[in-house]
Amino acid sequence: MAKTTGKLELRALTKEFGNGSEKVVAVKELSLTINPGEFVTLLGPSGCGKTTALRMVAGFETPTSGQVLLDGEDLSALTPDRRPMGMVFQSYALFPHMTVFDNIAYGLKVKKVSTAQIKKEVGEILDSMNLAHLTNRAPNQLSGGQQQRVALARAMVVRPKVLLFDEPLSNLDAKLRAQMRIEIRSIQRRLGITSIFVTHDQDEAMSLSDRIVVMRNAVVEQSGTPEEIYRRPSSVFVADFIGRSNFLSVAEVKKGASRKVTVEASGVKLKVNAHPKALKSAHPHLLVRPESVSVKKSSSSSKSRKANEGVVKNVVFYGNHVEYSIDTPTQTIAAVVSDPVYDEIVPVGAVAKIDFDESRAWLLPSDSAVITSEE
Amino acid sequence: MALKRSGTKYDIFTKIALVLVVAIVFFLIILPLLNILIYSTQPTGSAIITNAFSDVVIRQILWNTMKLGLTVAFLGTLLGFIMAYTQARVEFRGKKVLHIVNLVPIISPPFAFATAVIVLFGRSGIITRGIFDWRPTLYGYTGLVLVLTLSFFPIAYMNLLGMLRSLDPALDEAGSSLGASKWRIFRTVTLPLLIPGFAGSFLLLFIESIADLANPLIIGGNYTVLASRAYMAINGDYDIPMAAGYSFLLLLPALLVFLVQRYWAQRKSVVSVTGKPSGRPTVVTSRLARFFLLSVTFLLTSLIVLVYATVVLGAFVKIIGVENSFTLEHFRYLLGGFANAAVRATTFLALMATPLAGIFGMLIAWLVIRKVRRGSEALDFLGMLGIAVPGTVIGIGYAITYNDPVKIGGVTVFPQVAGGAAIFGGAIAIVMVYIIRSSPAGQRSGISLLQQIDPSIEEASASLGASGGRTFRLVTLPLISGAFLSGLMYAFAHSMTTLSPIIFLVTPDISILTQKILAEADQGRYGNVFALCCMLIVLIMVIGGLINLLVRRFQVSTDRPLVTGR
Ligand SMILES: Nc1ncnc2c1ncn2[C@@H]1O[C@H](COP(=O)(O)OP(=O)(O)O)[C@@H](O)[C@H]1O
Ligand SMILES: [Mg+2]
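Output (structure tokens, whole complex):
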């Protein structure tokens, strides 16, 4: 159901707070085009400017420079109430003095929809979100998950062209969060509403998004599909922020045939994919995700071990997978072996041979970020 | 209340504390009230009560009182709201100064406004006659409404400002993102959410204005209200039962409204905020709204400043508006003997009462929140009686009760503490009044603080073997010392400026500043009134500041939140 309206363009959006020596650049030249019906997540650590970016789109903050365009129309002159956007807040912001029904009807009443029509539309959305039995409750008589759903229903019932979410799941417990993720995504797909979702939780971003925009210190670090972000991060920071990583120092970087690059890491030669900038970088790192590391028992003793062998420092058995941390001569490697055969698990203290799946490794340019994934 | 320990029996310290608190409350407020009831059954007293609606004069007094209370409550709440909304939602320069100016009337002596307003706006007022050649009659309803509204609107201001600031800004933003204009959000979100605050402020202002005695005496003219009529029954008719009768008529609505305000209006004000409040409060940008809000604010603030300027100037010139030459004669007269004893006595007695009131308020707060399981609301109410009962009623009750030793079956259970023949010239009764009038403030701040402190901190102390008393002294008291401090400051300022109960208890040996001011105002010697007000304000600021410094030195830092889990 390809929708044709709801194309959102952010052009070099910048927001500065304060002035003089206390000036804070919260968002710097954020440019982004979001297609109709697309679900985009702004992901990044706390304080990187996600909320500010979202609030500029909603109209709650006036950009210092830059523009927001919806279907080609510049929204700069429009106050929040004139923008066809719905917002779901971290605190839900349900009106405490109104029932569930009145909360959801609020936006329709503002639009002067007839009473009968309001009744019908609110009823429909209450049904579709399994809230019908709560119609006359006050917000403080609802559980967190229910409040969340009411907030979502209230934002959606007015059929906005764009939905904005600011960490809406952060007040829920883990199980409910996972459930709400699925619910939000399926409703958004069904209605095809262009959405921007702000979060600092990488799982949330991975599971919800068509596209993830990773932000850091007010600028966009990388933008791409969840898979691109995970498999082909553009920096150590992104790789580290999304999932667990091993960063191997490499020697002898050679450009090979096709687009692959030959590197030597932990004593073995690997043919890997590389970020275009990696070749120009002084100290590129090889990213190998723990699940791309395979672990086998080795007959070497801890003294005679080779460069691609290491002493098992720690093993944790989770049933469906095993997590290792293994000391090689150069660094500690994290490995995840899924569906392990119990007898083949290498015990603590034993020597293990490790292999990297070169098709899944990724050569990265070095950047200023401190590598924090291990130790 | 979930914060309370359950299952355990009261320890010995709690039992002693409970008995002590109940005994103190009994002698400081219950007994005087009982005596009012008893006296009001005597012929001249019961005549007042039974004829309250049939007797034209009494009915008029009742109506005057209610009309004044309702008008002031309405205007004060409205004004307080406009000021609070401007403070919270309009951006302009000088906001902080404005905030302080709005709070000043709370601690100022009760006559400053009445006298300054007469001088400025009365029949021969500097502004009314001087500028507009207009000679309005201020004495009566108009003047009372003006003065009482100015004096009491800060209560509504504080109340509503606190509520406005605690509203989640995301509520406004949610409305806005649903397409509602700012005006619509104001009408459909902000105002409805403030209803409990409006109700609370209205009721509080109503109580304050029907209980006020000082202003009706100075500016009331022929407009008699219950408080001033009860005063006249004592000082003109010399008829104690009659005074008790009027006191009863005043006590009834005051207590009723107080109960409604505390236990009904408060409960309805629970606003649910689930997540973290986020966003920034909406700022008023509409030119018209800004113009309106800032104009009202500017006018009111100027008026307050004008009043205080009049008080200060009036203290240093011969007759302000008539003979504006600089003089120190008022101060010379006051300090040359007229007011020395009163300054000393007032300060000394208020200082005596302050720590006692503070500790007493805290003790009740602690018992209510932590210890007493059944009847904690009743205990809380007993502690609040001192502020719920109009000062006039307390004063008359004391005069009845303590001008003789209290005897039960011929045995003296409490000595004579009021009147010239009492020990210390009646000073003890005055201290008692100060304590019971100002401990409720400490009690309130103590309760709100204790509700935020995890009771397991105290349980930890108990589990380490500390007795109840030790835990209170070593753990609880240091934790609530912040509230204790604000309680003390308020207690002191309140004691220094209180008039209505004291006026019935002064003796030839013990005179009190506020009563001296009243006497001077009565004689029309406004220069002396202004000089006395200045002295009183300076005293409050200097000594209040010292108390602040002193207590701060012993204060544990409670900046970090102590609530970690549930
Ligand atoms: N109203 C404001 N005034 C001043 N600084 C602000 C304001 N709002 C946000 N900031 C600053 O802008 C930066 C980005 O904030 P925010 O957008 O809230 O980050 P995030 O949502 O990613 O955690 C932070 O450094 C924050 O302190
Ligand atoms: Mg944020």
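The pocket of magnesium ion (ligand 2) is lined by residues A 50-51 (CB under 6 Å).
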